[in-house]
């Protein structure tokens, strides 16, 4: 892989397609909108990368035999024709009906080259020869290209529809050499040098686009979150293009890693329309439907991961029957001075709802009280708890993380082999379990967050979170910290 590997890397942010009519419309629960500002940003990085990969490239040698008055037949060879420097003054990117067009106009370039010639004629049969260097300057280089992007079975296919490169003005400066040579270079070689430059640029565009296409195809369709869950990051539908933005949709739902769990019955409901009213537009807006969180809740619940055995509490006395001898005499009578532990499990998939100010979470758990007697675990009672919590979304790195706060809970005794439990016991146990086990555990998971679909080498900057039920939208600028000539294909997300 050469530098062109990343020539058009940034095109991932420049995805395009036509907004075609008849298509199968699937549901996407994460959508990515790239604004004008984002496109412009991507375009600039793209051009930097392109310039970088073209600079120092060498054009093929050019050789001509020309008839020069008085000198005779001269064989002139230009070699080591090197593009030393390109300066792009103005460029633009436009989204249109059929794709995205990038135009660079009025770029300038410096070239250096070596020349040599040998000439002979019947007048001067011994012949003459000379060699030296020259520089050439391209004063007006125009480059344009249009790409289309379509969804092919969940991955994106990038197609170069059209590209062109045109050198409008080229001047040559000879170091040494004769006046006739200068004239020959101008008359017979300028055109070839210009086409050499045009070809070099066009080759880079073709190579860059196909490299980028390979990169797009190699993006995984699922992204592992942990040993339990993965995120389905298949693209759905064709990218949608308007004159101010490009919208990409990905499936975005959690799936179990071991079983093929296909959560059915999710519907997007209302559409995202909040992003466009933002006061200062950001480069990208990523919207996550609450179904993303619901699917996560379902996957972790189904995988049976939401359960814990608790044998330590801050107030360890709670876990001994002796502590309860007055409040629950029966317990103490049957199991005097025995240690206890708790089995805690979430009893139904937690319900998650995006509200105007947070993400509301409703969780039901069962707490089974066990007595540990003679090496045996004896369940003696079960407390059910319904609690609600408020989750504040935040951006950590390129992840959407959350922080859960308990709001309120209610309890009831589900069953008991030791008679009616004192309300004190129920409250103490429940609040200890919530505060020391469940909420801390959930927060340790939530803080890792859901990876947002951002390419490696890009970082969210000044992200802003907006609650727009049933969506959470993250509007953000993006910074690029990749290096030109980066040899790796980036993975999907950080
Ligand atoms: C561009 O892509 C769309 C699908 O996104 C497709 O329908 C259309 O035919 C493509 N246009 C061209 C010119 O290839
Ligand atoms: C760059 O472009 C601007 C207009 O876009 C023009 O006024 C200026 O002369 C250009 N500079 C060079 C060095 O070509
Ligand atoms: C080309 O060379 C000239 C003088 O040597 C310099 O001023 C200019 O910045 C160089 N680069 C371009 C792209 O013209
Ligand atoms: C992932 O999403 C795509 C597009 O919606 C869907 O066709 C595919 O079945 C999903 N994969 C799984 C494993 O659910």
UniProtKB/TrEMBL annotation:
Residues 278-476 form the Lipid-binding serum glycoprotein C-terminal domain. It holds the Pfam family LBP_BPI_CETP_C. The keyword Signal applies. Gene3D superfamilies: Bactericidal permeability-increasing protein, domain 1, Bactericidal permeability-increasing protein, domain 2. InterPro entries: Bactericidal_perm-incr_a/b_dom, BPI/LBP, BPI/LBP_pln, Lipid-bd_serum_glycop_C, Lipid-bd_serum_glycop_N. GO terms for cellular component: extracellular space. Residues 1-21 form the signal peptide. GO terms for molecular function: lipid binding. It comes from the Eukaryota. The keyword Ribosomal protein does not apply. Keywords: Glycoprotein, Signal. This is Lipid-binding serum glycoprotein C-terminal domain-containing protein. It comes from Vigna angularis var. angularis.
